[in-house]
Structure formats: structure tokens, C-alpha cells
What does this fold into?
Amino acid sequence: MWAEDSSWVEREDYNMDLEYLACVKDILDHKVFQSMDHYMQHGDTTCKAHCIKVSYLSYCICRKLGWEYKEAARAGLLHDFFLYDWHTHARETGERFHGFTHPRAALNNAVKHFDLTENEKDMILRHMWPLTPVPPKTKGGMVIIYADKLCGLVETTARIKRWILYGFGRKSAA
It folds into this structure.
């Protein structure tokens, strides 16, 4: 349910996890990261909320398993740091392969604003595997792939579910 409901992100409940904050506070507080609230990602979830969900899920899984949780938390926040509305990007630029190209755009933006480890860079660049041909080098990178797909699927289906339950067949108030 937490992946479907973004209210915990809007309330900033993740701020109660001080270990998580120690990993990512510099990114969360950065004005360019905050600007991701202006871009929709899946359904009615903003890019910023989606990235926080992916980051926190990746952090929790990796921490529980003793894997690179700090790097997974940071790369999870930045995995979709492409800074444009992908719904209109192709029409505005002619670039039609967002699914293939946005990891590089996200990485390019991330290295402009943050100091990243080589593992974090790899996790961002490889998060769309197998759509992109090379898998990540780390277990944390694989966790980000899983978290991203899970969150994206839940966010999208939540919107479809709300449309079917509450909006399907309604006539506009014209």
C-alpha cells in the first residue's frame, strides 16, 4: 500500500529514519532535486515522490541484507533525475526513446550537482536493465531495478484503479 499511496512521502515520514537521512539529506535538501516535484512520473505520482519511494525501498532491502544501502539510497533518489516531463519530451525535442536514454540524462545531471561513488553512477546508469543492455555491477543496483519496477507498476495501476472505480463512464460537466 505504501507504494500506491504517496501521502507518506508528502508528509515526509522518511525523516523519522535518521540513518536514511544521514545517507541522503544533501540530495533531499537540494533545490534541483526539489524541482522534481514539477514533473509527473507514473499516474499522479511526481518524479520526486517516485524517486523517494524507490530510494527508501532500496535502502530498506539493502540494509536488511547487509548490502550497499547508502549507495542504493542515494542512487535510488537520482535514478530518474532527468529533469524534464517525459510525457511531452519527444514532442518537444524529437527524442523518442526516453526509456533507453533517460538513465544517461539522469547520471549527467546527478554528477553536475552531487559527488557520487562509481557504484552510485553505475546504479543510476543501469537502472533500466534489461531495456538497456548492461546490468548493474552491484547487488544494490539490482535492488534499485526491482524497486523502480515495483513502484512504477503500483503507481500506474493505482491511477487506473481510481479511474475505473471513480471516473469510468462519467460525463464531463460541460
Notes: The chain has a mean pLDDT of 86.
